[in-house]
Amino acid sequence: MLDINDIRAILPHRYPFLLVDRIVEMGTEHVVGIKNVTSNEPFFAGHFPDFPVMPGVLIIEAMAQTAGVLVLKTIADRGNKLVLLVAIENARFRRPVVPGDCLRMEMKVIKRKASVAKMAGVATVDGQVVAEAEVMCKLADKEEKQAGVPDAVPVPAST
User: What is the four-CA torsion angle of 67, 69, 70, 71, rounded to 10 degrees?
Assistant: First the structure.
């Protein structure tokens, strides 16, 4: 349904942090994304060299990015918007995701308001659940200042 080029036109993420390769199903209230996990993923160099396992936080991030495709796909001026992850609830990890796995992320809308969406998701490999979580995302303008985040202070060049 959507290939990597279509996804890149929707999400601002880029390698090595773009964690959705394809969208295989999408409706108004659900989306299904695929991440082909390969042995050359940068995180496997340190997690763990002798037993490579995809970090659970990156599985959740992949689920959130899949949800972000659904949220941003319907926004006309999505080039000026970001989908920010603001909450993760009820996260559970059932089994490791390793090189060669095809991670399937199914996300369903639980609640949606003008600028906030809460979605429940299940990630599977070969039909077996590997992770579950609820994520909440906030739609924000790219130029919007984040409360409590100071402006960048220039650092003088060292001599």
Answer: 90
User: Residue 59: beta bridge partners?
Assistant: none
Cis peptide before 42 (omega within 30 of 0): no
pTM for the complete prediction?
0.89
> How far is the C-alpha of 105 from the C-alpha of 64, rounded, in Å?
9
Maximum Cα–Cα distance across the chain? 58
Q: What domain range includes position 84?
A: 4-141
Residue 87 lies in a domain: yes
Position 114 confidence tier, pLDDT thresholds 50, 70, 90: confident
Active centre residues (catalytic): 47
